[in-house]
Amino acid sequence: MTIPWRRYGRLSVILPVAATLVSSVLLFGYAMRQEDEAVLRTFQDRARTLASAVRVGCDSHLEILISLNALYASVPTVSREEFSRFVGRSLSRHPGIRGLSWNPRVEAADRARFEAEAGTPITQRDPHGQRVPAAPRAEYVVVRYVEPATDQKALGLDVASEPVRREALSSARDTGLIAATRPIRLVNDGADQLSILLFAPVYGGGTVPATVEERRRQIRGYTTGAFRLQDLVETAIRDLPRDGVTVALFEDRAPAVPERLYSDARWTSRKDEAAGGLGWREPFVFGGRSWEVHVAATPAFEQRYRSWSSWLILLGGLLFTGLLGAFLYVVTSRTAKAEELMVLRTADAQVSEARTRDILEHMLGGMITFNEQSRIESVNPAAERIVGYREEELIGRSVALLLADAPAGDPERFLRQVHRKAIGRVTELWGRRKDGEVFYTEAALFEFAAPEGRRFACNFQDISERREVDRLKSEFVSTVSHELRTPLTSIRGSLGLLAGGVLGDLSPQVRDFLLLAERNAVRLTALINDILDFERLDSGRIEMQCTDVDLQALFEQSLESVRPVADEHQIALLSSPTGLRLRADGARIVQLLINLVSNAIKFSPPGREIRVWAEEKDDDWVRIFVKDRGQGIPASYHQRIFERFVHVETADKRDKGGTGLGLAICKAIVEQHGGRIGVDSELGVGSTFWFDLPSAAGREAMSERAN
Ligand code: ADP
Questions:
Q1: Which helix (H) or strand (E) holds 261?
Q2: Contact, 185 vs 197, CB < 8 A?
Q3: 534: CA distance to ligand 1 center in Å?
Q4: Rounded CA gap, 52 and 520, in Å?
Q5: Distance, CA of 571 to CA of 630 (rounded, Å)
Q6: What's the Cα-to-Cα distance from 491 to each of 17, 484, 499, 509, rounded to whole Å?
Q7: pLDDT band per the 50, 70, 90 thresholds, residue 696
Q8: Helices and strands (H, E) in the chain, number of each type
Q9: In 78-210, where does DSSP find H-type helix?
Q10: Mean pLDDT across the stretch 636-656?
């Protein structure tokens, strides 16, 4: 069965789950961006600091050269000593300086004089790197002074003899600015260490001439610095934090590929830098060359400076989504199940209600339900037929309306009595139809729990006809009995007289026969008396003469009359004193008690005791008990023994005598008082007969209330 809500049920899981999933992803994205920005900011701060430190480091080296240049510009001749002193300080303070030198221009005409003065020939390197006397040229730029002292062997070298240096020299001379060479490897340095040479032009007039021609003419020489790039850069950034970043210095040679001047140990390749990582480039001009500091973040940088909270958010979001999904799934499937169950139950309930209605409609017995206030709530068609009212005429009205014996004024007490009599058993009552006709009915009352509270149902049938037949039968029996009683009495009398030998002596055999006949006549008379008694009681022809009676007196009277028989059977009769009073027909109650106690004696072995007592049940009723320790009654007989002529089948089949009407008469007496009778018994242990009678106190209380 596909029920539409199933789809909604699924949607009610999917939608919130999708919403939280999307929210978590969005939140993740947002947090990620924030983190990216934070990482970028940290990187940029660090990179900017490093890059400018590199720049400043480079510039500060330029300044050394500038100040040396200023010295030459202001002093016409600088001696070797003066030179050494001047540069010595700078050398010790700047580890990046490989060496500083003074290289004057020497024209071809001055070569011999210069060589004599300097004490060293002007040399150049041959293709094998060997120093050889410089080839004749128009002019030379010769190393005259050089520091540190270890570089003295460079003295006399014509710097302009090498193309790289010559290019920088020309540029310095023509621009009047400091010019750097391309990176070169100096003879004394290792393979990794690149250096540059910076040439600062010194002109004859001390200042930089205005035109290129004048500059070319007036050029006097060059102060020169050799700088180791690695030492230079590393000194500059030595004290700065560098974890997670790598630094390199490039020379831009567009359109050719930039040349790497320096890189730290973490620098792997330019490809890494380009591959989406964080990077920073700071171009600057150094000695007329375009340099660029590159700072790149290594993977460690991100690990170190990313908070990763975005991933936590995503993880948390996914977890939450999962849990939410599971929770909603469980809840909706439970709800779905509950709803499904409810639908099924409702359907079931409808089916069973329809079935119940069907049964009620078609049953032959009448069925009336009413509430605790005896207000009628439903009436089935059979009941409508029996009482002659339609259901709608009865709903909301009191059940008393249908009971012939209900007193018009205050039917409550009466209803309570009827209720007590009929609940859980079949009982006979007088009913009244709509047209006022009284009918005899057999009714059973039962209680049930309706959703709206305690309810009662009365199942009844009209047994007027059956009762009429019964009445005719009983009448016939009582007529016959009555007719039999008089002749039987005279027969019994005659037999007694005969057996007594009043009419002459008899042989013992004849006498025995006569005695037997007399005993049977006595039993027959008793039976006939019982039958007549029962008929009169049962048909209600004997009116109960109810007065206030003292129960204790009734106990005493009853026990007194059976005591001889009890003594004969060696049975003790005990009664608990009672102060209770009854509203009852005293003579009938004595008859009832004698019947029960006689039975108890009859079915108890000698030496046992019989106990009689009473208890107040509630303010209206008294329950009286007769308890023996005799043979007991099997459970299957507990109801039936109150019917006429029922005897318990015993194993020994011993006839205890008795008409089988005693308990039926007892029941009729109790019911005539509106009460109930019953027995609790266990085989071999004993029986306790009990019956309820209205108490005098209850009646007083009722009438007091009525007043
Ligand atoms: P009867 O007049 O023959 O005793 P009752 O109607 O008084 O008839 O009793 C019916 C039957 O109930 C008895 O025959 C007996 O089997 C059983 N009975 C009655 N009272 C007792 C009792 N106190 N203990 C055991 N059985 C009993």
A1: strand 259-263
A2: no
A3: 16
A4: 146
A5: 11
A6: 106, 10, 12, 20
A7: confident
A8: 18, 24
A9: 80-93, 111-118, 163-175
A10: 79
Find out whether the beta carbon of 692 lies less than 6 Å from any atom of ligand 1.
no
Q: What is the pLDDT of residue 702?
A: 43
Contact 462, 428 (CB under 8 A): no
432-442: string of b/e by CB count within 10 Å (b at 16+)?
A: beeeeeebbbb
Determine if ligand 1 sits within 6 Å of the CB of residue 559.
no
Query: What letter represents residue 175's amino acid?
Result: T
The alpha helices in 132-182, defined as continuous H runs, are 163-175
For 81-112, write each residue's pLDDT tens digit: 888 888 888 787 777 788 899 999 999 999 99
CB burial of 533-552 (b: ≥16 within 10 Å; e: otherwise) equals bbbebbeeebebebeebebb
Tokens 């003292």 map to which residue? 550
Mean pLDDT for all residues in the chain: 86
pLDDT at 366: 92
Which residues have CB under 8 Å from 103's CB, separation 6+? 141, 142, 143, 144, 159, 199, 221, 222, 223, 224
How far apart are alpha carbons 118 and 145 in whole angstroms?
Answer: 9
CA-nearest residue for atom 19, ligand 1, is 599
CB of 403 closer than 6 angstroms to any ligand 1 atom: no
The answer to whether 286 and 58 are in contact (CB under 8 A) is yes
pLDDT band at 428 (very low <50, low <70, confident <90, very high): confident
Which residues, in sequence order, are CB contacts of 308 under 8 Å at separation 6+?
Answer: 35
The beta strand positions in 560-701, using DSSP E, are 572-575, 581-584, 609-618, 621-628, 677-682, 686-694
- The phi, psi pair for 260, rounded to 5°, reads -80, 125
What average pLDDT does the segment 387-409 reach?
90
Contact 612, 587 (CB under 8 A): no
Reference 585, options 537, 623, 625, 619; nearest CA is 537
Radius of gyration of the chain (CA): 68
The Cα–Cα gap between 248 and 250 comes to 7
Which residue shows structure tokens 């939608």? Answer: 15
Whether ligand 1 lies within 6 angstroms of the CB of 592 is answered as no
Cα-to-centroid distance, 641 and ligand 1 (Å)? 7
pLDDT at residue 345 greater than cutoff 80:
yes
Stretch 141-150: mean pLDDT, rounded? Answer: 88
What residues form DSSP beta bridges with 611? 574, 627
Which 3 state secondary structure label does DSSP give 242?
Answer: coil
Q: What's the sign of the alpha-carbon dihedral 353, 356, 362, 367?
A: negative
H or E segment at 350?
helix 309-362
656 C-alpha vs ligand 1 centroid, how far in Å?
9
Instruction: Verify cis geometry, omega within 30 degrees of 0, for the bond prior to 255.
Output: yes
Scanning 136-211, the segments in alpha helix (DSSP H) are 163-175
Instruction: Determine the residue of 523, 573, 641 to mutate for testing ligand 1's pocket, defined as the one with the most ligand atoms within 8 A of the Cβ atom.
Output: 641
Per-residue pLDDT tens digits for 440-486: 998 988 988 888 889 999 999 999 888 888 788 878 887 888 888 88
Q: Are 243 and 295 in contact (CB under 8 A)?
A: no
604 touches ligand 1 (CB under 6 Å):
no
Residues 17, 20, 23, 29, CA torsion sign: negative
For the residues of 7-26, what is the DSSP string, one character each?
A: HHHHHHHHHHHHHHHHHHHH
The CA distance from 533 to 663, in Å, is 12
**Which tokens sit at 366?**
């009448």
Count of residues making up the chain:
707
Q: Name the pTM for this structure.
A: 0.46
